């Protein structure tokens, strides 16, 4: 379960104001490339779900994410989320030809390594949670050091 706070800003002036207020707390900028998928009949969005491929400047792999059953209460979103690591080359192939994905023998899912197997399931989830907590703790330390 992930909790996100969504801010919907009414206009560019409000955006500039929020940016001005938050700028002193800015630590670093991460670049992301997000690609969202749905069928022509919008089956995913009609079930309030999203499928995303994310490439970042901090991770050499691609993360595929499926989010579903989001509930927003007072601006706080709670959503079921499932993430898997994909080989970047295979992910780029899927983007190049989304309607015609080709099976690839180098796919991690076809030939998982022992490490890939460790990263799946409960142990992998625990490891991902620890990494998230670690990143959050580091961000808080950096903010504290800036004051």
TrEMBL record:
Source organism superkingdom: Eukaryota
Composition bias type Basic and acidic residues, residue spans: 115-127
Biased composition annotated in UniProt, kind: Polar residues: 102-112
GO molecular function list: pyrophosphatase activity
Pfam family, one: CYTH
CYTH domain mapped to chain residues: 1-147
InterPro entries on file: CYTH-like_dom_sf (IPR033469), CYTH_domain (IPR023577)
Disordered: region residues: 90-147
Comp. bias (Basic residues): 128-147
UniProt-recorded name of the protein: CYTH domain-containing protein
């Amino acid at each position: 379960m992930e909790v996100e706070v969504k801010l919907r800003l009414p206009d560019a002036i409000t955006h500039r104001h929020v940016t001005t207020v938050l700028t002193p707390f800015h630590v670093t900028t991460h670049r992301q490339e997000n690609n969202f998928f749905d069928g022509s009949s919008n089956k995913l969005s009609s079930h309030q779900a999203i499928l995303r491929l994310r490439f970042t400047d901090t991770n050499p792999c691609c993360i595929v994410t499926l989010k579903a059953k989001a509930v927003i209460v007072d601006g706080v979103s709670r959503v079921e989320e499932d993430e898997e690591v994909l080989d970047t080359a295979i992910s780029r192939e899927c983007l190049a030809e989304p309607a015609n994905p080709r099976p690839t023998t180098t796919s991690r899912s076809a030939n998982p390594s022992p490490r890939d197997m460790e990263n799946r399931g409960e142990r992998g989830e625990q490891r991902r949670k620890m990494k998230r907590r670690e990143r959050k703790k580091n961000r808080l330390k950096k903010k504290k050091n800036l004051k």
